[in-house]
Design a protein that fits this description.
The complex is a heterodimer.
Chain A (H helix, E strand, L loop, with lengths): L7 E5 L4 H12 L3 E5 L3 H20 L5 H10 E4 L10 E4 L5 H14 L5 E4 L6 H5 L8 E6 L8 E6 L5 H13 L3 E4 L8 H17 L5 H12 L5 H8 L1 H15 L8 H8 L13 E3 L2 E3 L2
Parallel strand pairs in A: 1-2, 1-4, 2-3, 4-5, 5-6, 7-8
Antiparallel strand pairs in A: 6-7, 9-10
Chain B lengths: L2 E5 L23 E5 L15 E5 L6 H4 L10 E6 L10 E6 L5 H13 L3 E6 L6 H18 L4 H12 L5 H8 L1 H15 L8 H14 L1
Helix pairs in contact in B: 3-6, 6-7
Classes of the chains: A alpha/beta, B alpha/beta.
């Protein structure tokens, strides 16, 4: 399979935030896009948010009306895995669990053509381990989008140990054809982005634990001193403190990097239900979407 | 806010020509700002100002004021304007307090800098303050990732710019700030904290060795 032959793209987990965004990327770039998920309800919600997104793109002059209509026409949904049978590329963005992803790859092999490329959007798991469930491991590749996928250009591309050069090259070229910016990383925990961010956020939490400064002082320092758009505590509250714990639990046992271990304060806050924006309280308090001091 | 500035050697925070140097004046100053590499040595316990601010490099404020089992603090605060190597100084002032620093002194110190247009972040008197404590381990990781072949320097920098909206990536930033300087900072932090994240990365050790050899 070469990139020029990729015309039909399947997205597994398309009812989720990441999968929905990936489906938008594919449809917008001119590929027939099949959004797959287990429930009609979540697919319906994703579709209900996709059309307004395209409408906003038109309103902002980033997409022509005809291109919007064509993108919407290229977008279809299915709850039947067999609906992905004709896809040249299937990108999975299902729950971040090795067993779930391995089972999906194995099931996809049963319904898809032999040269279909399987890409995993995992942010923490090994591409090689995911691919190990496949009979033809050479066609599994890492393709990690950033949230929100429909807005962020970056894709971390990782070959597993058994990924063929041809598959990696075809997947790489597809990301470029889709208007994205790929970077190559080894198949290591967190690839590049999370390998930096997860320990860095933990360091910031430990600085609070150590009494170095309050969260808002640290956020202010990093934004003003380094030009970061968000401070680590604003970011943690946005992604969810429970998510940070899950990331730590994925990284630390593999890397044994002390910086990747979840700090006690993080665990206490999760136990207390202070998960960030979604619960109205994390390192800051939120009311009606507005942020107040910590 | 009545403040006066006295200079004691070259200042990393306020190089020659910095507009802040033109502020203040008058003997009746409420706040006395000591700047320069010898500011700490110039600290005078009989200084009549209500608040005294001492420019710091990497040392703790306690090195100049002395410490008292966690009861130290009064009217003297430390500060440093964050600067990456020889890049122009940023707009950030890290303001350093001790456990018993007078809250009114903190407010007055903050006002001096905020009135001059700076952003102020208050922190305790710990090595690396906020920025170096947090970014130096990240730069160490980036340098280690480079050695291990995780990705190219360009890919790591591009990833951080695109994925995190950073203005620059960790490799380009630490190289611009000077690998040998990074070595000096991390070695000092490692001596105090002893945790692996602060251990100087191999590339910075090499850079420091070459600098020292060339300087010998």
């Amino acid at each position: 399979m070469s990139a020029t032959k990729i015309q039909r793209v399947g997205v597994c987990g398309a009812g989720g935030t990441m999968g929905a965004g990936i489906a938008i990327v594919a449809a917008r770039a001119g590929f027939e896009t099949v959004a797959y998920d287990l429930s009609e309800d979540v697919l319906g919600q994703a579709r209900a948010e996709t059309t307004p997104f395209f409408d906003k793109s038109v309103a902002r002059g980033k997409l022509a009306e005809a291109d919007r209509d064509a993108a919407i026409a290229r977008y279809s949904t299915t709850t039947d895995l067999a609906g992905l049978a004709d896809c040249d590329l299937v990108i999975e963005a299902v729950f971040e669990d090795l067993g779930v992803k391995q089972a999906l790859v194995a099931d996809l092999e049963k319904v898809c053509a032999k040269d279909t490329i399987f890409a995993s959007n995992t942010s923490t798991l090994s591409i090689t381990e995911i691919a190990s469930a496949a009979e033809h491991q050479d066609r599994v590749v890492g393709m990690h989008f950033c949230l929100p996928a429909q807005l962020m250009k970056l894709i971390e591309m990782s070959p597993g140990i058994n990924t063929s050069d041809a598959v990696f090259r075809a997947a790489w070229e597809w990301t470029e054809a889709a208007g994205q910016t790929p970077v190559e990383t080894q198949d290591k925990p967190g690839f590049i982005l999370n390998a930096f961010v997860v320990p860095f956020n933990n360091d910031a939490i430990r600085a609070v634990e150590a009494g170095v400064a309050e969260p808002e002082e640290i956020d202010r320092a990093l934004k003003s001193g380094l030009g970061y758009r968000m401070g680590p505590f604003e970011l943690l509250d946005m992604i969810g403190l429970d998510t940070q714990v899950r990331l730590c639990e994925a990284f630390y046992p593999v890397t044994l990097d002390p910086r990747a271990a979840a700090p006690p304060l993080l665990r206490r806050m999760v136990a207390a239900g202070h998960l960030g924006r979604k619960t109205g309280r994390g390192f800051y308090r939120y009311e009606g979407g507005k942020m107040f001091g910590s | 806010m009545a403040h006066r500035i006295s200079r004691h050697g070259d200042s990393r925070s306020f190089p020659d020509g910095d507009p802040f140097l033109e502020t203040g004046g008058g003997d009746a100053a409420v706040v006395h700002v000591l700047i320069g590499s010898e500011a700490g040595a110039a600290l005078d316990p009989s200084d009549p100002a209500r608040v005294v601010l001492v420019e710091l490099d990497h040392e703790c404020l306690g090195a100049h004021t002395g410490e008292d089992a966690g009861r130290e603090g009064g009217r003297v605060l430390g500060f440093a304007r964050y600067r990456n190597g020889d890049d122009p100084p940023s707009n950030l002032i890290e303001l350093v307090r001790q456990p018993e620093t007078d809250p009114d002194a903190i407010d007055l110190a903050r006002a001096v800098f905020e009135d001059a247009g700076f952003e102020v972040a208050l922190c305790s008197d710990q090595a690396g303050r906020i920025i170096d404590r947090l970014v130096r381990p990240k730069y160490n990781s980036a340098l280690r990732f480079l050695d291990e072949g995780l990705a190219t320097a360009e890919s790591m920098d591009l990833t951080c710019r695109l994925g995190l909206s950073y203005p620059d990536g960790p490799i380009e930033r630490v190289e611009r700030g000077g690998l040998a300087r990074h070595h000096d900072v991390t070695r000092a932090l490692f001596e105090i904290y002893g945790t692996p994240g602060f251990a100087p990365a191999r590339r910075s050790v090499v850079a420091a060795m070459r600098r020292d050899r060339e300087g010998a």
